[in-house]
Amino acid sequence: MMDWAALRGRWFRSRESGGEPVLRPRVAVVTDSSCSLPEQWAESPQLASLVRVVSMPVMIGDQIYGEGTDRMIGALALALAQGQDVRTSRPAPGQFEALYAKLAAEGFEAVVSVHLSSKLSGTADSARLAARTAPLPVTVVDTASVAMGLGYAVQDAARAAAAGAEAAGVVAAARASAEAAHILFYVPSLEQLRRGGRIGAAAGWFGTLFAVKPILAIRDGLVVPLERVRTAPKALARLEELSREELARRTGPVRVAVHHFGNEAEAERLASAVIREVPEAQVLLCPLPAVLAAHAGLGVLAVAIAPSTSTGRAPGAADTGSVAAAGGSPAGGAEKKRGPGPAGGAGEAGDVPGTVGRPAARPGDLDRDID
Q1: What's the first-to-final CA gap in the chain, in angstroms?
Q2: Rounded to whole angstroms, how far apart are CA atoms 202 and 219?
Q3: Among candidates 53, 177, 167, which has minimal Cα distance to 112?
Q4: Mean pLDDT for the stretch of residues 256-281
Q5: Is the pLDDT reported for residue 349 higher than 60?
Q6: Is the confidence at residue 325, as pLDDT, over 80?
Q7: What does the pLDDT read at residue 68?
Q8: Highest-pLDDT range among 34-38, 61-65, 94-98, 365-369
Q9: CA–CA separation, 155 vs 356, rounded Å?
């Protein structure tokens, strides 16, 4: 006898077109607002509907702001410039509990919750706590990444879900994308990272805190030092050079995100350099999420590089100009993301990916001085 209850919600027939039954995605993807997804990242409304974003709060003095408002961005930039107290917090488990319950009520059968590195934030822990009492199975993926290193993993997870993958397949897509991503960034000063306790292996640089312009990377979920450069112009030139070296190591199509906070012109120049190096790359120019900029400080410039898994035109290029194939910009430069990103059984504890698909650190890579 047919188990109709098991099939309920999995299939629907298009009444308008009278077409054949279409497989309805069964897995939703949840992430946090550090992912930096462009507003129009998805190729279709259906794909976008599979992803939900939990906002991470930013506290400036005694004011609490949610990610993504123009008022908050302006307040954060002013606070950082004035050296005010700026803090961030993980989302409360209750936020995830409410969202997981809502997704179950919408008919989803599982959730893959994809988040920034647990070594930089307790967000994944909050998601795991909520997963214990969720009304549907939730798998929490710690990507050991941030910004569009996380954002690309979310995109790939959503595409797997839209293609009908089970939860295990969606998890595998997110992990593979995160493991293959490479993130480099420059900060004018380590002070803000030091205040937030996110400095990791760069702590040994404190003796020369004001004498260097550091280039850092995300490795195994931590902020690690790559090079100490003596001046800002040389640091920016070196970041471009390191980005080109990473692109040269890649085979196949790539996606590149250039993040900035308070220095968009420098980001535009870097994005243009990437385009010249790899004309067929999909290049995204976008502000760093406020929850990350609060720790990196004003003037941060970051590059996230990952393999491209999409086919055809870059997501959103024709509609909003937020993401484009590198050669598609009318001015020959990267397209821009002007505004904030979208708002929007038990979790697994041992979910931190390794470094598969990512170039291993060489002895000469770390802690170098550049005159």
Answers
A1: 76
A2: 12
A3: 167
A4: 91
A5: no
A6: no
A7: 61
A8: 94-98
A9: 19
Q: Phi and psi at residue 69, in whole multiples of 5°? A: -100, 145
pTM for the whole structure: 0.77
Least Cα distance to 170 among 127, 110, 104 occurs for 110
What are the structure tokens assigned to 99, written together? 């969202």
Amino acid 188: pLDDT: 82
What pLDDT, on the 0 to 100 scale, is given for residue 192? 61
Do residues 284 and 323 make contact, with C-beta atoms less than 8 angstroms apart?
yes
Give the length of the chain: 371
Pair 341, 35: CB distance under 8 Å: yes
Neighbour tally for 129: CB within 10 Å:
18
Question: 366 to each of 99, 210, 218, how far by Cα in Å?
Answer: 41, 19, 12
Asked if 36 and 257 count as a contact pair (C-beta separation under 8 A), the reply is yes
The position carrying tokens 């979920």 is 221
